[in-house]
Amino acid sequence: MTTLSKSLRGAALGALLAASAVAVPAAASAQALFSAPERLDGGQVSFASGERGKPVLPGGPVVAAGRGFHPGQSIVLMYGQTPLSTGPITANAEGGFEARLTLPADAQPGNHPIVAVSQAPYNAVLANLKISPNVPLSNEAAYRITSIQPTRGLYQTAYSAKRNAVFATSAVGRPPVRQSELLRLNADTLAVEARITPAAAPGRAGRDGQPQDGGVFAVYGVGVDDANDTVWVTNSRQNTVAVYRQSDLSLVRQFEPGTVNHARDVVIDEEHGKAYASATFEPEIVVFDTGALTVAKRLKIDSTVRGETFSAASVSYDREARRLYVASNSTNEVAVIDAAADTVLNVFRVPGARSVIGVSHDPQTDRIFVAGQGTDNLVVLNGSDGSVVADTPVGAGALNVVFEPKSRRAFVSTFGAGTVTVTDVDGRIVANLPAPPVANHVSTDGRGNVYVAVKSGWTTDGNDSVLRIRPAR
Question: Which residues of 112-129 are buried (b: 16+ CB within 10 A; e: fewer)?
């Protein structure tokens, strides 16, 4: 392990690039010009917080980890022309390394390019150091937060006005997932009224090619259809969706594996009998007939980024505007779909955002709220032309967002910071509420209440939490 230079403590990273005043480090200058280059991939470098389960923050500890280098190879981490280490880092016998630094307190949040320069043979690898904003908690007294711990592995929630109930999905672990539940909670008390474990899923081939237990049809995304008294869920691991009865959570229809690629979200147009499911990693929304329980059509979304493919992630349906909004986490775009005609109206880029994931809409102002997981921000777009109204830092790992129409506030869940940030329609923060350790998803009942699915993260206290957030008065 190598300790990185303490010279970073007194200067913001943004000020380190001063080429005229910085000398090339000795290790770099000793390299002969145009010696035999690296013929392999040349290693990888990543950065993480020195505190487990925490984001990288200004003034905080950072661990740089490398792999894929040659044993004994010398590596220098560079910010511009400034070396971050007091001396070269040496790769261990497995070709890896670990080094630590403490960021300066005035380090600027954002994605910072770091170059790992290796010698003998020479190579340069670009790595990204993301420093997240440290957004303090604020205005907690303006809200009342109620919490229960119903199960492990919570993912999403959705509200049913017909039953005054909140439906929640949960799944634990990686395939084959054996622990998963669909729950119905009383919206007023949050008490569990019903719960089921999904049916067994088909077996699959393991890495060794041998048959493997398929686990269950684990549930992740959830949407409510009060018109048909059903609940729709996504089975991401089996690339499909399923439909359950609201009354007793019995299975109505399990669609075949492969129906929707890595299905993430599902939303319902109850009035017109449609369900929309997003096919993650594909430029596709699958449209279902909620009465016949069949696939009605597949909507293809073309990216505006040359050579790139739209990847459908979060989906938000605005019943008043009759518009479907789809986020693309691969191309940092938002598609606007006319749900009456099932045609794509616009595809807007989201400037200043990386790994776009969460999306919601306000029909009154026609503003689109977009969460950028890779840039820790909420970007507010004008729905008519895609222009940026606001770009607001909200905390590490901004994952999902919902616009609550009664209070006219946007609520953003942050996966890394463990908070729910509340903004007005102009993107100004009006509160930052605790939802530790991992705020995964937010939904609303349209009556002023917001429901949050909170994961237990690195803690070992058992169940995850469902929070209900409502104005204090």
Answer: bebbbbbbeebbebebeb
Name beta bridge partners: 276. 267, 287
**Is residue 22 over pLDDT 60?**
no
For the chain, counts of helices (H) and of strands (E): 1, 39
- Provide φ and ψ at 170, rounded to 5°: -150, 150
CA atoms of 94 and 136, how far apart (whole Å): 41
74 - beta bridge partners?
A: 90, 119
pLDDT tens figures, 274-330: 999 999 999 999 999 999 999 999 999 999 999 999 999 999 999 988 999 999 999
With the C-alpha atoms ordered 161, 449, 54, 66, is the resulting torsion angle positive or negative?
positive
DSSP letter string, 108-177? PPEEEEEEEEEETTBEEEEEEEEEPP----B-GGGEEEEEEEEESSEEEEEEETTTTEEEEEEEESSSSP
pLDDT band at 111 (very low <50, low <70, confident <90, very high): very high
Question: Closest by alpha carbon to 456, among 144, 150, 134?
Answer: 150
pLDDT band at 115 (very low <50, low <70, confident <90, very high): very high
Q: How far is CA 461 from CA 199, 434, 458, 465, 467, in A?
A: 27, 17, 9, 11, 16
Q: What is the pTM of this model?
A: 0.92
Average confidence score pLDDT of the chain: 91
Torsion of CA 300, 302, 307, 313, to 10 degrees: -70
